[in-house]
Design brief:
Strands 1, 2, 3, 4, 5, 6, 7, 8, 9 and 10 form a ten-stranded mixed sheet that branches. The protein is of the alpha/beta class. The relative contact order is 0.20. Helix 2 crosses helix 11 (267-281) and helix 7 packs across helix 13 (302-323). Helices cover 41% and strands 20% of the residues. It folds into two domains: 4-128 and 256-323, D-Maltodextrin-Binding Protein, domain 2 (3-Layer(aba) Sandwich); 130-246, Periplasmic binding protein-like II (D-Maltodextrin-Binding Protein, domain 2, 3-Layer(aba) Sandwich). Residues 1-27 form the signal peptide. Keywords: Signal. Belongs to the UPF0065 (bug) family.
């Protein structure tokens, strides 16, 4: 646990001063008395996994028993979300979630075994980042317009990799292809790490992947970045244009991460975990670690995050329906 005065200062900076004394009181009542399981819907080595592990390490003082990070892959993150939704609402199972689980999958998948609006308790929004459209070096394209021109000369749709079926990365690439009038065929992997490996291995020429697993390969020239998905350029890739600059005006697509618990998680547990996340995200070393991976720390407390997820269900749900992609 952080010393009382510095901790209060950090929480005040994040708009949480009224809650500053809740976590110590709760700790005295026994939580957390054992390791907390954190479910992740993608494989080790991707952006989700990297972010969760950075935060878990930074929260060590508030969680002396530690975390058991479980990468439960499959069905675009639905397996992890279903497991979390069905877990006891006692604070010992948390889900590292994103827009795919909470907004896109319910539209894309015919059968989703959970209700994103009613089966979870919002705890905190923690970070956001762009995904990157990348190609192998032999692809004759340096922006999205050139990619579309090349793709239109090919007899078959262009294979592209993403971290998960139904992810923002997947849907974002489908939207780009529709806007620019070329054909793609999606191949989903169980995380950004495996998707990056597939492109490096020549299994497919194109990818839509979060920044963390890509950065070393982009720097070494093994892959070429055509665009970042956000409305502004990334400090980590300042020479890479945004989607709008690269050929799709008006389009901006950010990936975000948050933490939720099963519906009915006690309010005092929600406050404790949320405050611990706020304190971790306020640490300069955490911001530096996240920034080096292309992520921006962005904390939202429970009520704000809950409202944000409701907005995301509307906006991404609309985009998913417009893309006309359905997954069995």
């Amino acid at each position: 646990m952080l010393p009382d005065m510095p901790r209060r200062g950090l929480l005040r900076a994040f708009g949480l001063a009224p809650l500053a004394l809740a976590a110590p009181a709760l700790a005295q009542s026994g939580y957390p008395s054992r390791p907390v399981r954190v479910l992740i819907g993608s494989a080790p080595g991707g952006a989700t996994d990297i972010t969760a592990r950075i935060l878990a390490e930074a929260m060590g003082a508030a969680f002396p028993r530690g975390f058991a990070i479980e990468n439960r892959t499959g069905a675009g993150g639905n397996l992890a979300a279903e497991t979390a939704a069905r877990a006891p609402a006692d604070g010992y199972t948390l889900l590292f979630n994103d827009a795919a689980m909470m907004a896109i999958n319910p539209v894309l998948f015919r059968n989703v075994p959970f209700d994103p609006a009613n089966d979870f308790t919002a705890i905190a929004h923690v970070a956001e980042f762009p995904f990157v459209i990348v190609v192998r070096p032999e692809v004759p394209a340096r922006n999205l317009t050139e990619l579309a021109a090349w793709a239109k000369t090919q007899a078959d749709p262009i294979l592209f990799a993403s971290p998960n079926t139904g992810s923002q990365h997947h849907l974002g690439m489908e939207i780009i292809a529709q806007r620019l009038g070329f054909r793609v065929t999606h191949v989903g992997f169980r995380g950004g790490g495996p998707a990056t490996t597939a492109i490096l291995g020549g299994q497919m020429p194109l990818g839509s992947i979060g920044m963390p697993p890509l950065v070393p390969h982009l720097r070494e020239g093994k892959l070429r970045a055509l665009a970042v998905s956000t409305g502004t350029r990334s400090p980590q890739l300042p020479d890479v244009p945004t989607i709008a600059e690269a050929g799709v005006p008006g389009l901006s697509l950010a990936v975000w991460y948050g933490v939720v618990g099963p519906r009915g998680t006690p309010p005092e547990v929600v406050r404790y975990v949320s405050e611990a996340l706020a304190a971790a995200l306020a640490k300069p070393e955490v911001q530096q670690k996240l920034g080096s991976q292309g992520l921006t720390a962005r904390y939202m407390p429970p009520a704000e995050f809950d409202a944000f997820m409701a907005e995301e269900r509307t906006s991404w749900g609309t985009a998913a329906r417009a893309a006309n992609v359905t997954i069995e």
